[in-house]
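User: I'm preparing a small set of examples for a lab meeting where we compare how different chains pack in three dimensions. I only have the primary sequence for this one, and I'd like the structure in C-alpha cell form so I can line it up with the others. Please keep the answer compact; I'll paste it straight into my notes.
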Amino acid sequence: MSGASPNVLMLFTAAVATQLVGIGLLPRTAGFTDILATTLCIVSLTISFGLISRMLHGGSNLSILAPLMSAIIPFGASVIGILAYGERASLPRMGLLFGACAMIGIASRVS
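Assistant: Understood. Below is the C-alpha cell output for the 111-residue chain.
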C-alpha cells in the first residue's frame, strides 16, 4: 500500500485490529452458545468487513489489500492463540507461517 493516504492506513489498521479481535473472540463463543462473546465476535468482524469495503470503495486495490491482510491476519491470530490461549509456539509452525507470509508478500509484487 505504498503511497496510501493516512486515511487508508488508518482504515487498514482498524480493519486488521477489529478482525483480530473477532478472531480472538471465536474460542470464547463456545460454538456460538455464549451470547455475549458471539455478539461481540460478529460485531467486530462486521465492522472489519465494513472498513475493508470502505477502503475498496475509496479506490484501494483489492490485489494489494487482500494479500497484505492474508499475511497479517493468520500471523496475528497465531500470536493471540499463543498469548491469550496458551497455545504452543513450535519453531516449525512459526517458521512455516512466516514463510507463507513472505511468499504472499512476494506474490503480491509479481505482475
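A couple of notes for your slides: The longest helix spans residues 62-85. The mean pLDDT is 89.

User: Perfect, thanks.
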